[in-house]
Amino acid sequence: MADITKEYCIQEMKRLAGIKGRPPFFEEFISETNVTNHYLIKLFLNFSNLMTESGFEPRSTVRDIPLIPIEQMWKSYSDILYKLKHPPSKAEWSYYKFQPIGRTFQYKFNCKFSEIPLRFKDFAKDRPEYADVLVYLPKSDEKEMTNVITTHLEDFHLFVPPVLKNLEDTDDSNDFETQVGIAFQLLGFKTNLLGQGQGENPDFIAKRPKDHYAIIGDAKSHKDGYSIDANDRRKAERYIGDYRESLEKEGIKTLFFVFVARSFNSDCKKAVQDIREQTNVTTVLLTTSALLQLTASHIRNPYDFDFSELKTIFSKGGEINENTVKSFLTEIEE
To answer: Which H, E and C letters describe the chain, residue by residue?
Structure first.
């Protein structure tokens, strides 16, 4: 274990921020580094001081929120509206490091994220000093407000870390396999990479021990659409047979087999059905775009990410693409 010094803690804070595209939360920092809460207190007194010394703006805690003046919060929100010329999405709020963070408004006013513009409109409607920014709010109902916010789902690329930037473009199959494995790791799965010269193995196994499910994965870097041939189908069935028992002993109750590719040809549908019939394991065709969207969503909203709902999506089998995960991601955005 590395010596736990102030310099080491700051280095780890910056390392995780580089991976996640934002400063880590306290729970993430403790679970993903060798630093314990004992050392945080000893060296920095608290996590906020570590954030400050690492060059980041400390987050407001739930305990602090009641003390923040309402006028101060709405002045900050009006500044955000003036900068963007529209209500910010969660992605924009994080990307531009707006303060207070969106969750502070949700706690303060006991509302959903999508309701923040409505609360501001109600506060500012009779205050002349806010007239210039009220024009940036939709003029009709809550539905329109929500649509403005959720139209920015395509901004997910802002939260894709550099290590995954060329997942959809790389020609190197080993690089593709590695990035897919890293994506599942950043998505919140305990991931083991098994491909790249390690014999007849799947490319990765991604586990969610808390939720009792796991994914056996095969990453296919084909650029023109992937078709599951008879050999790949037999390999998938063998991999399931090889790893099912050991995963069950670890407490895994539900197993999925997932092919990851940029796109899939229509003949994959029958192969997916055949694998399920032979193994009784649901097989999924996951596009890289959907994987990146899910990963970016987890990075920017880790505490809103619902792994049980994600399991439900996988349980349906078949292809999971951008359209499949749209409603799931929109729920997190709101």
So the answer is: CCCCCHHHHHHHHHHHHHHHCCCCCHHHHHHHCCCCHHHHHHHHCCHHHHHHHCCCCCCCCCCCHHHCCHHHHHHHHHHHHHHHCCCCCHHHHHHCCCCCCHHHHHHHHCCCHHHHHHHHHHHHCCCHHHHHHHCCCCCCCHHHHHHHHHHHHHHHHHHCCHHHCCCCCCCCHHHHHHHHHHHHHHCCCEEEECCCCCCCCCCEEEEEHHHCEEEEEEECCCCCCECCCHHHHHHHHHHHHHHHHHHHHCCCCEEEEEEEECCECCCHHHHHHHHHHHHCCEEEEEEHHHHHHHHHHHHHCCCCCCHHHHHHHHHCCEEECHHHHHHHHHHHHC
